[in-house]
Amino acid sequence: MGRFPDPADGQPSMQDATPQHCDILVVGGGPAGSTAAALLAGRGWRVLQLEKDRHPRFHIGESLLPANLPLLQELGVLDAVRGIGLVKRGADFPSGAPGGYSTFRFEDVLGDTPDHAFQVRRDQFDALLFDHARTCGVDARDGLRVEQVAFVGDDVVADCRGDDGARISVRARYLVDASGRDTFLGSRFGSKRRNRRHASAALFAHFDGVARRPGEDAGNISIYRFDFGWAWFIPLPDGLMSIGVVAGPEHFRRRRGDQADFLLDTLRSHPEAGPRLEGAALASPVHATGNYSYACRRMAGPRWLMVGDAWAFVDPIFSSGVFLAMHSARLAVDVVDGSLRAPARERALQRGFQRRVRRGVRAFSWFIYRFNTPAMRHLLAHPTDAFELRRGVISMLAGDVFDSRPVRRRLLAFKAIHGLFSLATLRQRLLQARRHRRQAPAAVERDGIGSGAA
Ligand SMILES: Cc1cc2nc3c(=O)[nH]c(=O)nc-3n(C[C@H](O)[C@H](O)[C@H](O)COP(=O)(O)OP(=O)(O)OC[C@H]3O[C@@H](n4cnc5c(N)ncnc54)[C@H](O)[C@@H]3O)c2cc1C
Q1: What is the predicted pLDDT for the residue at 440?
Q2: Assigned domain for 220 exists
Q3: Distance in Å, CA 364 to ligand 1 centroid
């Protein structure tokens, strides 16, 4: 289906299916979908949640943020997540400090954001949230893909297919698109826009036997910079380490051998990351994600809205994806609930929802797009305590980007200093820009990664 059908398009084809009726259809069984579904069921709505894969299934995005903990608590799963997670007390970034890195610990946040988060295996985390939605009264089914959708009168009509070939049709009053990078509605609307300035791709896997940080920092995420991108080390329970490299297409085009060798060679070439891999062994298949930064033009419309990656994804460098996904789902609950109770309020509720979601994404994006500038390198390597700027940055790293005025003031001051510093390093940036222009940014096909062809 190339475009989103309007009522005049009539019903999708569902000849042999008896319609299932519900108030809300949630497409997707990831963190955003399960959050929205569980909370909407808690408000008394009949919710049907469909997931095309079967839980537990692999997913990337294993490092959570402290700001997500209150929402896990509200959902009633915080203790269960603690049971499957590894405590994450902070993040370390490269610097000239002894050991080659500076640690930003969440205990230094401004305000009352929790002082830790968790690193989780997403197969376990997502299954836990999906099962929890079920215990909240959601009719949550996996192995069922939503294939088509149409708006017919006041209803949303969806055509779904099971992995056993069975088909069901669904009639709902509201549609929550939580389909993640599949961007179910965005693709059908033709409203998804790739970010050409940020056409990165990622290669990642789990490893055994990778050296961890000492003591309480053993659960921290480590970020490494390369000329062509960056890498993450995320410690997981059971001695695993999730490791990934994010880079532009030009780097992946250099690949000649298989993906595992290429990933390892890239990591070993880094003077600080490489030694941590001595004696390490691959513990999973290598996965790839291409063309990964995008946004859909609209986030909501009559009887539908998008949450989490179904609307937009920027970059995982600050581990913001799961938090933003679950937080947007939390905000969406008020919109859907309010709109079903008083349809005349829908537009106003959706406007407020979009403003708030965009604000959070913008706060992270500003840092993401500048992560490799000389000014940001310097400011993260030598964070100043003046005006509590360092604590402001740590609060951003912890996910406190929505409501706290003290944090927003610190981040504004940080931006001003970044601007001044950028002026001072203008020459260096011009040289960097020229280098990037020479390496023409061609497209990497979706979920395909450099084949080795020159
Ligand atoms: C390389 C990389 C590294 C990342 N690292 C981190 C990190 O460390 N920390 C972090 O917080 N975030 C990270 N992220 C981001 C994170 O993975 C996502 O932001 C997060 O998973 C979004 O949750 P979601 O529920 O919106 O989507 P998803 O988790 O993708 O869930 C969507 C679900 O919908 C299902 N689905 C799709 N289409 C249909 C359909 N038609 N019918 C039924 N079901 C459907 C999918 O199978 C999927 O299970 C990373 C992302 C990438 C690409």
Answers
A1: 42
A2: no
A3: 17
